[in-house]
Amino acid sequence: MTIFSKIIKGDIPCYKVAEDDEFFAFLDIAPLQKGHTLVVPKREVDYFFDLSDEEIGRMQIFAKHVAVAIKKAIPCVKVGQAVLGLEVPHAHVHLVPMQSEKDLNFANKKLELSPEEMTAIAASIAAQF
Q1: Which class for 55: exposed (0-12), middle (13-18), buried (19 or more C-beta within 10 A)?
Q2: How far apart, in whole angstroms, are the C-alpha atoms of residue 107 and residue 95?
Q3: Sheet holding 78-82: strands in order across?
Q4: Catalytic residue among 36, 90, 92, 94
Q5: Which residues pair with 39 in a beta bridge?
Q6: What is the pLDDT of residues 98-125, one digit of tens each?
Q7: Whole-prediction pTM
Q8: For 90, what's the count of Cα atoms within 13 Å in the CB-facing half-sphere?
Q9: 10: left (phi over 0), alpha (psi -120 to 50) or beta
Q10: In this structure, are residues 40 and 128 in contact, taking their beta carbons and an 8 Å threshold?
Q11: pLDDT tens across 18-49, in order?
Q12: Which of 33, 37, 39, 123 is deepest in the core (most CB within 10 A)?
């Protein structure tokens, strides 16, 4: 069972932003920017492109709704999306609020936000979802 499956199950706490029957969105604990969110399928699949075409389509629509909520809650020019998938063997996309393309560089230093800040950010995004 991956760390993401444990988060979805509730065994590990997270800053949940949104969920439906198939997908779950929560704040990245080492964010590039305030509001950096991960969207994962509830079904444990290692590689994003091992999802069916239909699942990828539904996941993208779910991620779009999360991105719209992020943009409403976090001042940014756009919300960028990245599919990496090497650090956790569970398909996921990163949604990152951006002022410029440099904000989506995963080599950048990660933010260190307090639990109170993370809770407030998650609540503000969830309220827009």
Answers
A1: middle
A2: 16
A3: 16-19, 23-27, 37-41, 93-98, 78-82
A4: 92
A5: 25, 93
A6: 999 999 999 999 999 999 999 999 999 9
A7: 0.94
A8: 19
A9: left
A10: no
A11: 999 999 999 999 999 999 999 999 999 999 99
A12: 37
Backbone angles phi, psi at 3, to 5 degrees: -60, -35
Structural contact between residues 90 and 76, judged by C-beta atoms closer than 8 angstroms = no
Locate 72 and state its tokens. 């409403």
pLDDT in tens, 48-67: 999 999 999 999 999 999 99
* Model confidence band, residue 5 (pLDDT cutoffs 50, 70, 90): very high
Q: What angle do CA 119, 125, 127 make, to 5 degrees?
A: 100
pLDDT at 17: 97
Token representation of residue 120: 């407030």
Q: Which of 92, 126, 88, 115 is nearest to 29 (CA)?
A: 115
C-alpha to C-alpha distance for 72 and 79, rounded to whole angstroms? 10
Here the tokens at position 10 are: 């509730």
The first and second tokens of residue 51, run together, are 């999802």
Which pLDDT value is given to residue 30?
Answer: 94
